[in-house]
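Marked as duplicate of an earlier ticket. Keeping the data here for the record.
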Amino acid sequence: MSGSDALAVPSLGYGAANVGNLFRALSDDESWAVLDAAWDSGIRYFDTAPHYGLGLSERRLGAFLQTKPRDEYVLSTKVGRLLRPNPDHDGGLDTANDFHVPDDLQRVWDFSASGIRASLDESRERLGIDRIDLLYLHDPERHDLDLALAEALPALEQLRADSEVTAVGIGSMVSEALAASVRAADLDLVMVAGRYTLLEQPAAADVLPACRETGTGIVAASVFNSGLLASDEPRRDGRYEYGQLPDELWERLLRIARVCAEHDVPLPAAAIQFPLQSDVVRSVVVGGSRPAQLRQNSEYAALEIPGALWAELAAEGLIPA
């Protein structure tokens, strides 16, 4: 099989950055409760990365999934950053990267074939799970996109050819990097973070067409746009990416919320289900640091949404027609 047919990914997944202590520290028991809620809600796709909590997310997720039948879930992690001892560690935390964990390790970029393979092997060890279904190259444009296209992506293709993983792709918040990677390599899936959401769809101009041409599937992540779409009543002071929400997007958000309210559809439900209206989107990955959030998101994913909502949003130019 080639393209996205290589791996069947459930339509709803859990992105495990929060159990790596993203934004706030969770105890092992609290993290387990979050993962338990995801599983009990029917979620069977779990995504993690070495970057998340300097390996803490992988360790916690792996410990949980080791208690589940291996054939009942899909597991993805990421490569590109190796974790190595931090010679400057002085007892501080990794809060510069928003993770509340000791910064006794540091991230070291490595897009070489040996580095990519080492990252996979080390992730397997942290997870305690040998079979990783899907491997993404993580944020290649933050290091060197040209090097990623020349070395890292061929290394991923070789790992797939060697049956080390079933499927390969990249994960990024930058549409240009995603589209270039899709056209440069035989990728199965790409994780589009925040670039194809109910609020904004820049990936519709380049990433989606590239995926249609190549048979590559999309996993949509960060669909709440840093939390802006996570409640029915958006807040003007909500965080957007790494700064304040621009006035233009705020006005757009209010219009979207109004249309959802007129159709009696919760804004977060529309946010989760919007990407799946596209023929190339295979899955939506949501985060969450509390069990109730996972249960609620699963309910939103299953909520029946009238076609008239999508039609009105399209008519007002808020989503692609």
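See parent ticket for discussion. The first strand starts at residue 12 and ends at 15.
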